[in-house]
Write a structure and sequence with these properties.
By secondary structure, this protein is α+β, with helices and mostly antiparallel strands. It has six helices and seven strands. The radius of gyration is 48 Å and the shape is rod-shaped.
Length: about 230
Amino acid sequence: MEEKLEISGKKKKELRSLSSMMGNLGYNKISYSKDRLNVEKYKGEDLKGKPNLEYTIVFGSNGITFTYAVPQESNKRKRLIELFPTFLDVIRVSEDYYDIKPTAILSQVKSVIDDISKVVDKEAVEIMTELEELKLRFNAITSKYNDLVRSSEENAKILIECERRRDELRVRVDELTGVSDATLKEDLYTWIKVHNGSIDVREFSKAHSLSIARIEEGLNHLVKDGYVKRRFD
Protein backbone atom coordinates (compact mmCIF):
# COMPACT_ATOMS: atom_id res chain seq x y z
CA MET A 1 0.00 0.00 0.00
CA GLU A 2 1.15 3.54 -0.78
CA GLU A 3 0.37 6.93 0.72
CA LYS A 4 1.14 10.41 -0.59
CA LEU A 5 2.13 13.82 0.74
CA GLU A 6 1.86 16.68 -1.75
CA ILE A 7 2.73 20.33 -1.59
CA SER A 8 2.07 22.90 -4.32
CA GLY A 9 4.70 25.35 -5.47
CA LYS A 10 5.73 26.87 -8.78
CA LYS A 11 9.12 25.78 -10.03
CA LYS A 12 11.57 28.73 -10.10
CA LYS A 13 14.51 27.18 -11.95
CA GLU A 14 15.74 24.06 -13.68
CA LEU A 15 16.15 20.95 -11.54
CA ARG A 16 19.50 19.80 -12.98
CA SER A 17 21.58 21.04 -10.03
CA LEU A 18 18.98 19.68 -7.61
CA SER A 19 19.46 16.33 -9.31
CA SER A 20 23.18 16.44 -8.54
CA MET A 21 22.48 17.47 -4.93
CA MET A 22 20.03 14.58 -4.37
CA GLY A 23 22.59 12.18 -5.83
CA ASN A 24 25.11 13.29 -3.21
CA LEU A 25 22.57 12.58 -0.44
CA GLY A 26 22.69 8.83 -1.07
CA TYR A 27 19.45 8.15 -2.91
CA ASN A 28 19.36 4.89 -4.86
CA LYS A 29 17.82 5.98 -8.15
CA ILE A 30 17.53 9.41 -9.79
CA SER A 31 16.02 10.20 -13.18
CA TYR A 32 15.93 13.73 -14.59
CA SER A 33 14.14 15.44 -17.44
CA LYS A 34 13.56 19.10 -18.16
CA ASP A 35 10.39 19.49 -16.07
CA ARG A 36 10.62 16.48 -13.76
CA LEU A 37 13.01 14.92 -11.29
CA ASN A 38 12.30 11.47 -9.82
CA VAL A 39 14.20 10.31 -6.74
CA GLU A 40 13.82 6.85 -5.19
CA LYS A 41 14.98 5.47 -1.86
CA TYR A 42 15.22 1.73 -1.21
CA LYS A 43 15.47 -0.14 2.05
CA GLY A 44 16.48 -3.80 2.11
CA GLU A 45 15.32 -6.53 -0.24
CA ASP A 46 12.43 -8.96 -0.45
CA LEU A 47 12.80 -12.75 -0.50
CA LYS A 48 13.49 -12.69 -4.24
CA GLY A 49 16.28 -10.17 -3.87
CA LYS A 50 14.24 -7.29 -5.26
CA PRO A 51 14.88 -3.93 -3.54
CA ASN A 52 12.06 -2.69 -1.29
CA LEU A 53 10.97 0.83 -2.24
CA GLU A 54 11.00 3.07 0.84
CA TYR A 55 9.68 6.23 -0.81
CA THR A 56 9.67 8.19 -4.08
CA ILE A 57 10.00 11.96 -4.48
CA VAL A 58 8.72 13.59 -7.64
CA PHE A 59 9.78 17.16 -8.22
CA GLY A 60 7.36 18.45 -10.86
CA SER A 61 6.67 21.82 -12.44
CA ASN A 62 3.83 22.63 -9.98
CA GLY A 63 4.99 21.05 -6.74
CA ILE A 64 6.49 18.11 -4.92
CA THR A 65 4.90 14.70 -4.39
CA PHE A 66 6.26 12.40 -1.70
CA THR A 67 4.97 8.82 -2.12
CA TYR A 68 5.88 6.27 0.54
CA ALA A 69 5.22 2.59 1.07
CA VAL A 70 3.19 1.31 4.02
CA PRO A 71 4.04 -2.37 4.65
CA GLN A 72 1.08 -4.63 5.26
CA GLU A 73 2.06 -5.24 8.87
CA SER A 74 2.62 -1.53 9.64
CA ASN A 75 0.28 1.08 11.08
CA LYS A 76 -0.52 3.84 8.57
CA ARG A 77 -0.38 6.69 11.09
CA LYS A 78 2.83 5.41 12.62
CA ARG A 79 4.39 5.24 9.16
CA LEU A 80 3.36 8.85 8.49
CA ILE A 81 4.93 10.00 11.75
CA GLU A 82 8.17 8.21 10.83
CA LEU A 83 8.52 9.76 7.36
CA PHE A 84 7.02 13.23 7.78
CA PRO A 85 10.35 14.72 9.00
CA THR A 86 11.95 13.37 5.80
CA PHE A 87 9.25 15.11 3.76
CA LEU A 88 10.01 18.41 5.54
CA ASP A 89 13.73 17.93 4.86
CA VAL A 90 12.96 17.46 1.16
CA ILE A 91 11.07 20.77 1.14
CA ARG A 92 13.95 22.50 2.90
CA VAL A 93 16.54 21.11 0.45
CA SER A 94 14.48 22.24 -2.55
CA GLU A 95 13.49 25.69 -1.25
CA ASP A 96 15.67 27.47 -3.85
CA TYR A 97 13.88 25.65 -6.68
CA TYR A 98 10.23 26.27 -5.74
CA ASP A 99 8.07 29.14 -4.71
CA ILE A 100 6.22 27.47 -1.83
CA LYS A 101 3.95 29.53 0.39
CA PRO A 102 4.43 29.04 4.16
CA THR A 103 0.70 28.41 4.51
CA ALA A 104 1.04 25.30 2.34
CA ILE A 105 3.71 23.88 4.68
CA LEU A 106 1.72 24.85 7.77
CA SER A 107 -1.33 23.15 6.30
CA GLN A 108 0.61 19.91 5.92
CA VAL A 109 2.06 20.17 9.43
CA LYS A 110 -1.36 20.89 10.94
CA SER A 111 -2.87 17.93 9.10
CA VAL A 112 -0.21 15.60 10.51
CA ILE A 113 -0.49 17.05 14.02
CA ASP A 114 -4.27 16.61 13.93
CA ASP A 115 -3.77 13.02 12.80
CA ILE A 116 -1.28 12.38 15.61
CA SER A 117 -3.63 13.99 18.14
CA LYS A 118 -6.39 11.61 17.11
CA VAL A 119 -4.06 8.67 17.62
CA VAL A 120 -2.89 9.96 21.02
CA ASP A 121 -6.42 10.76 22.15
CA LYS A 122 -7.66 7.36 20.99
CA GLU A 123 -4.80 5.52 22.70
CA ALA A 124 -5.30 7.58 25.86
CA VAL A 125 -9.01 6.72 25.94
CA GLU A 126 -8.26 3.05 25.29
CA ILE A 127 -5.62 2.99 28.04
CA MET A 128 -7.94 4.70 30.53
CA THR A 129 -10.77 2.34 29.61
CA GLU A 130 -8.50 -0.68 30.06
CA LEU A 131 -7.26 0.71 33.37
CA GLU A 132 -10.80 1.18 34.64
CA GLU A 133 -11.69 -2.36 33.58
CA LEU A 134 -8.62 -3.71 35.37
CA LYS A 135 -9.57 -1.76 38.50
CA LEU A 136 -13.08 -3.20 38.42
CA ARG A 137 -11.73 -6.73 37.93
CA PHE A 138 -9.22 -6.24 40.75
CA ASN A 139 -11.92 -4.95 43.10
CA ALA A 140 -14.21 -7.86 42.18
CA ILE A 141 -11.46 -10.42 42.78
CA THR A 142 -10.50 -8.75 46.07
CA SER A 143 -14.14 -8.82 47.18
CA LYS A 144 -14.44 -12.53 46.30
CA TYR A 145 -11.21 -13.28 48.16
CA ASN A 146 -12.42 -11.45 51.26
CA ASP A 147 -15.74 -13.30 51.06
CA LEU A 148 -13.88 -16.62 50.86
CA VAL A 149 -11.72 -15.70 53.86
CA ARG A 150 -14.78 -14.72 55.88
CA SER A 151 -16.59 -17.85 54.74
CA SER A 152 -13.61 -20.03 55.72
CA GLU A 153 -13.46 -18.40 59.15
CA GLU A 154 -17.20 -18.84 59.62
CA ASN A 155 -17.04 -22.47 58.46
CA ALA A 156 -14.17 -23.15 60.87
CA LYS A 157 -16.20 -21.65 63.71
CA ILE A 158 -19.22 -23.73 62.73
CA LEU A 159 -17.09 -26.90 62.59
CA ILE A 160 -15.61 -26.24 66.04
CA GLU A 161 -19.06 -25.58 67.44
CA CYS A 162 -20.42 -28.78 65.87
CA GLU A 163 -17.57 -30.80 67.36
CA ARG A 164 -18.17 -29.26 70.77
CA ARG A 165 -21.89 -29.91 70.53
CA ARG A 166 -21.25 -33.48 69.38
CA ASP A 167 -19.06 -34.15 72.42
CA GLU A 168 -21.71 -32.69 74.69
CA LEU A 169 -24.38 -34.87 73.12
CA ARG A 170 -22.19 -37.96 73.42
CA VAL A 171 -21.72 -37.30 77.13
CA ARG A 172 -25.47 -36.75 77.48
CA VAL A 173 -26.25 -39.97 75.63
CA ASP A 174 -23.88 -41.85 77.92
CA GLU A 175 -25.62 -40.34 80.92
CA LEU A 176 -29.05 -41.29 79.58
CA THR A 177 -28.00 -44.83 78.76
CA GLY A 178 -26.41 -45.11 82.18
CA VAL A 179 -23.09 -46.36 80.78
CA SER A 180 -20.09 -44.08 80.40
CA ASP A 181 -17.05 -44.96 78.34
CA ALA A 182 -15.09 -45.74 81.50
CA THR A 183 -17.85 -47.98 82.91
CA LEU A 184 -18.33 -49.74 79.58
CA LYS A 185 -14.60 -50.50 79.27
CA GLU A 186 -14.51 -51.80 82.82
CA ASP A 187 -17.55 -54.06 82.29
CA LEU A 188 -16.12 -55.37 79.01
CA TYR A 189 -12.72 -56.07 80.53
CA THR A 190 -14.30 -57.94 83.49
CA TRP A 191 -16.49 -59.98 81.11
CA ILE A 192 -13.52 -60.95 79.00
CA LYS A 193 -11.51 -62.03 82.04
CA VAL A 194 -14.40 -64.09 83.39
CA HIS A 195 -14.99 -65.74 79.99
CA ASN A 196 -11.37 -66.82 79.51
CA GLY A 197 -10.37 -63.96 77.22
CA SER A 198 -13.34 -64.09 74.87
CA ILE A 199 -16.64 -62.24 74.45
CA ASP A 200 -19.88 -62.94 72.68
CA VAL A 201 -21.04 -59.48 71.67
CA ARG A 202 -24.69 -60.47 71.32
CA GLU A 203 -24.72 -62.15 74.73
CA PHE A 204 -23.07 -59.11 76.33
CA SER A 205 -25.61 -56.89 74.56
CA LYS A 206 -28.52 -58.79 76.02
CA ALA A 207 -26.97 -58.88 79.47
CA HIS A 208 -26.33 -55.13 79.63
CA SER A 209 -29.07 -53.82 77.33
CA LEU A 210 -26.58 -52.10 75.03
CA SER A 211 -26.42 -51.87 71.27
CA ILE A 212 -23.84 -53.91 69.43
CA ALA A 213 -22.42 -50.70 67.96
CA ARG A 214 -21.89 -49.30 71.48
CA ILE A 215 -20.17 -52.50 72.57
CA GLU A 216 -17.89 -52.46 69.50
CA GLU A 217 -16.97 -48.92 70.36
CA GLY A 218 -15.99 -49.99 73.90
CA LEU A 219 -13.95 -52.91 72.59
CA ASN A 220 -12.09 -50.60 70.19
CA HIS A 221 -11.16 -48.40 73.15
CA LEU A 222 -9.80 -51.41 75.04
CA VAL A 223 -7.73 -52.50 72.05
CA LYS A 224 -6.48 -48.98 71.49
CA ASP A 225 -5.51 -48.59 75.14
CA GLY A 226 -3.67 -51.92 75.08
CA TYR A 227 -5.89 -53.79 77.58
CA VAL A 228 -6.88 -56.51 75.14
CA LYS A 229 -5.93 -57.80 71.70
CA ARG A 230 -8.18 -59.03 68.97
CA ARG A 231 -7.88 -62.70 68.15
CA PHE A 232 -8.89 -64.03 64.77
CA ASP A 233 -9.75 -67.75 64.78
